[in-house]
Amino acid sequence: MDRIRTSRTAWAASLLCLGLTLTACGGAQEQGAAPAEEAADSAVTAADAFSVTDPWIKAVTAEEGMTGVFGVLANGSGEEITVVSADYDAAGMVELHEVVSEGTDATMREKEGGFPIPAGGSTTLEPGGDHIMLMELTEDLQPGAEATVTVEFSDGSTTEFTAAVKDYAGANEEYEGGHGEGHGDGEHGSEGEDGGAHGDEGHGDH
Fold first, then answer.
1. Signal peptide: which range, if any (predicted)?
2. Alpha-carbon distance 65 to 170, whole Å?
3. Calpha distance 168→57 (Å, rounded)
4. What average pLDDT does range 155-176 have in this prediction?
5. What is the pTM of this model?
6. Where do runs of H (alpha helix) occur along the chain?
7. Secondary element (H or E) of residue 178
8. Which CATH number fits domain 46-163: 3.90.550.10, 3.30.360.10, 2.60.40.1890, 3.40.50.2000?
9. Distance from chain centroid for Cα 195
10. CA 204 from centre of chain
11. How far apart are CA 162 and CA 165, in angstroms?
C-alpha cells in the first residue's frame, strides 16, 4: 500500500512540475512579443507615411527644357519626414527648389535641406513657392499626359507618384544662378501677380 501511495505522490508532483514549466514558457513568449512589435513599428519608413494629393506638372516641350512638379505632400506618421531628392526618367537633372522674393523680383534656387513635412501634417508645392524642378528634359510633357516622379527621403526610403500634365500660364520665375546650357545665367527675372515673366532673358518655363 505504501508503494502505491508513493507512486501516486510522485506522479502528482511530476504533473505539477510540468504545469509550472509550461506556464514559465508561456510567460517568456508573451514577454518576447513586445520587442517584436516594437521592431515592426520601427521598420515603418518615411515612404510608408508619405502621400500626395492632386500632383500635377506644367506642360512644356523638350525644347523648353524644364518644368515644375506641384501638389500637396502629406505625412501620416508621428514624426517629421523630409523629401531630400527626386527623380524623373525623362529629365537629365531634378532639383528641389524654392522661390525667394526680393522686392518685385522672384528667383528660384535649390532648397537646402529639402522639403520637411511635419508630423501628421502637410507641405504644399505650388507655383511661386516650393516645387520639384525637372530639368534637361528629353521628351515633351503634353497636356493630358501623366508622368511618374520618384522621391527619396532622409531615411533613404523612396516612393513614386503619378502626376497629371496640364497647361498653366504662370510659374515663370528665373534662376538665381546658372544650371547649365539653356537654364539662364544670372538673377534676371521676376514674376508678377498675373503669373507672367517680366525678365527679358528666358530659359524655359516651369
1. 1-28
2. 16
3. 9
4. 84
5. 0.67
6. 2-42, 46-49
7. none
8. 2.60.40.1890
9. 27
10. 26
11. 10
The neighbouring-strand residues paired with 74 are 51, 122
Q: How far apart are CA 66 and CA 203, in angstroms?
A: 8
The cell numbers describing 131, all together, are: 516645387
- Distance (Å, rounded) from C-alpha 170 to C-alpha 206? 8
Cα separation of 114 and 10, whole Å?
72
Phi and psi torsions of 77, nearest 5°: -100, 175
If DSSP codes are grouped into helix, strand and coil, which group holds residue 171?
coil
Instruction: With CA atoms as reference, report the closest residue to 138 among 91, 206, 69, 68.
Output: 91
pLDDT tens readout for residues 32-57: 555 555 555 567 899 999 999 999 99
| Residue-range domain boundaries for the chain | 46-163
The answer to whether 115 and 54 have CB atoms below 8 angstroms apart is: no
CA distance 116 to 82: 4
| Chain-centre distance for alpha carbon 163 | 14
Place of cell 518685385: 104
> Side-chain half-sphere of 128: how many Cα atoms within 13 Å?
15
Residue written as cell 524644364?
66
Q: Which three cell numbers stand for residue 116?
A: 520637411
